[in-house]
């Protein structure tokens, strides 16, 4: 019997925000959609863009196709204005199962009443490409629209299950919830789960990944970044080079710079000139806000870019590396 990941085994651990990042084809989407269907209540299927949602309405891209085949049901998604409807077809009759939406256009639907929905499946929320909108801001708008004031009325909070492969940690939602360094630490310590009162985070593996290693394609690409991402759940697109906490008393402040991710501080070593980017602030240096990119680049940016190219910049954590990379318009 093939050992697939099944989120239904984690039902008692689910919080308001649930983030599942795992290898390819281990059963994340299948089990999450099965779980949503088994609740017997309307749910939301969410993707980043309308193009992705439109494709989900086709026979080619229908995310319920395998579930329909395995259960003898006929579950389809249909476009309706700016949103989508999920139905089960029985002959000429259609039974509503849930709704679909694109995060990029959901702001157009603020004010709708979705009080009948208790669960959302956000599929493939991490993308390697840069999205054209701020994903975290859009997600906060989406969550507020659906959740409204449920908890103030004594109801359980709206639950979202966010699913993805380990494509990259450069993601607005991971950054917005402060989870980037948490995931780095988890991967370094081989930890699989983290939770608090409001969030559940899992980096699962499944036995099916071991079995896939001996299939034709993965035998051909064994050991490559693509295979490690798909089978080992490694964030192979992210570089953790020079990420190490250093003693701040050996450095003097150079500047502080604000990015969309937050404020980071840049320090220079007192003797050897190494650069250290960290979260320790200093009022004894110039501070550049996020609207001063040109000034920052002219006064400090070109110098810091050269230091980065030469491997002379160290980072307190990976989040600091992403912040300075954003400030310098570099790719990690």
Q: Write the element-wise H/E pattern from the N-terminal end onward.
A: EHEHHEEEEHEHHEEHHHEEEEHEH
- Report, as a whole number of angstroms, the end-to-end distance: 40 Å
The secondary-structure class comes to alpha/beta
Number of helical stretches of at least 4 residues: 11
Q: Which residue ranges are poorly predicted, with pLDDT under 50 across at least 5 consecutive positions?
A: none
Give the strand order, joined by hyphens, for the main sheet. Answer: 3-4-5-2-6-7-1-9-8
The portion of residues forming beta strands comes to 15-25%
Structure overview:
- This protein has eleven helices and 14 strands.
- It has a nine-stranded mixed sheet with strand order 3-4-5-2-6-7-1-9-8. A five-stranded mixed sheet has the order 13-10-11-12-14, with helices on one face.
- Strand 6, helix 4 and strand 7 form a beta-alpha-beta unit.
- It is globular.
- It is an alpha/beta fold and 332 residues long.
- The two termini are 40 Å apart.
Which key terms come to mind for this protein?
332 residues; 14 strands; alpha/beta; 11 helices; 23% strand
Tell me briefly what this model is.
The chain is an alpha/beta fold. The chain is built from 11 helices and 14 strands. The longest helix has 17 residues, at 293-309.
Question: Helix and strand layout, with pairings?
Answer:
Blueprint: E1 17-21, H1 28-38, E2 43-47, H2 50-56, H3 65-71, E3 75-80, E4 83-90, E5 93-102, E6 119-122, H4 135-147, E7 159-164, H5 172-176, H6 180-188, E8 193-195, E9 199-202, H7 207-212, H8 216-220, H9 225-232, E10 251-259, E11 262-269, E12 275-278, E13 286-288, H10 293-309, E14 313-315, H11 318-328
């Amino acid at each position: 019997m093939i050992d697939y990941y099944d989120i239904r085994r984690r039902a008692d651990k689910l919080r308001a925000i649930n983030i599942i990042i795992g290898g390819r084809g281990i059963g994340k989407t299948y089990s999450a959609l099965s779980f949503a269907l088994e609740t017997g209540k309307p749910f939301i299927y969410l993707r980043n863009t309308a193009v992705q949602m439109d494709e989900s309405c086709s026979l080619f891209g229908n995310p319920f196709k395998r579930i329909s085949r395995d259960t003898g049901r006929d579950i389809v998604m249909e476009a309706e204005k700016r949103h989508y409807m999920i139905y089960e077809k029985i002959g000429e009759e259609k039974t509503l199962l849930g709704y679909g939406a694109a995060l990029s256009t959901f702001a157009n639907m603020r004010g709708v009443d979705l009080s009948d929905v208790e669960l959302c499946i956000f599929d493939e929320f991490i993308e390697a490409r840069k999205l054209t909108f701020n994903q975290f801001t859009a997600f906060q708008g989406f969550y507020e629209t659906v959740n409204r004031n449920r908890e103030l009325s004594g109801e359980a909070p709206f639950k979202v299950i966010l699913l993805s492969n380990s494509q990259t940690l450069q993601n607005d939602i991971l950054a917005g919830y402060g989870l980037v360094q948490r995931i780095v630490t988890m991967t370094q310590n081989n930890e699989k789960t983290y939770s608090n009162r409001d969030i559940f985070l899992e980096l699962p593996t499944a036995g099916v990944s071991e079995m896939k290693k001996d299939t034709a394609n993965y035998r051909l690409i064994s050991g490559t970044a693509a295979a490690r991402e798909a089978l080992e759940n490694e964030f192979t697109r992210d570089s953790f080079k020079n990420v190490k906490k250093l003693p701040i008393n050996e450095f003097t402040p150079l500047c502080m710079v604000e990015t969309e991710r937050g404020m980071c501080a840049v320090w220079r070593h007192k003797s050897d000139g190494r650069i250290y980017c960290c979260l320790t602030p200093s009022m004894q240096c110039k501070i550049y806000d996020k609207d001063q990119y040109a000034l920052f680049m002219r006064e400090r940016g070109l110098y810091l870019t050269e230091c980065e190219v030469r491997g002379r910049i160290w980072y307190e954590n990976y989040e600091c590396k992403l912040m300075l990379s954003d400030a310098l318009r570099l790719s990690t």
